[in-house]
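In the lab's daily routine, each protein ends up as an entry in a very long ledger. A line of letters takes care of the sequence, but it says nothing directly about the fold. The fold becomes a row of whole numbers, each drawn from a learned catalogue of backbone shapes. The protein below has been through that process, and both of its lines are reproduced in full:
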Amino acid sequence: MNRSGVPIKTSMERQDALQHACLYENLREKCQAFLSKMEPPQLLTMLRVRTRFHEVLLTPDGKITVLVVQNPKDTHLKVEDLNRHSSNF
């Protein structure tokens, strides 16, 4: 997304992309404001947010902000699955 928070390139529906861009741009601004008040001031380089439905990676840069919204399913095995797989070895 550009500096105004408007998506430049997306594979999502336009309305969904605008909604995500607006919400996460607000979060980015708040995180950056918090980090700038720390001693010494820090710069936001990457923000990762995981919800029940999405995992979001936000990387701000000078002219654009890269926002990746992905499906978090199948990223972690359940403990039962690990035990079942390890007993086969």
Observations:
- The chain has a mean pLDDT of 83.
- Strands lie at 47-50, 55-60, 65-70.
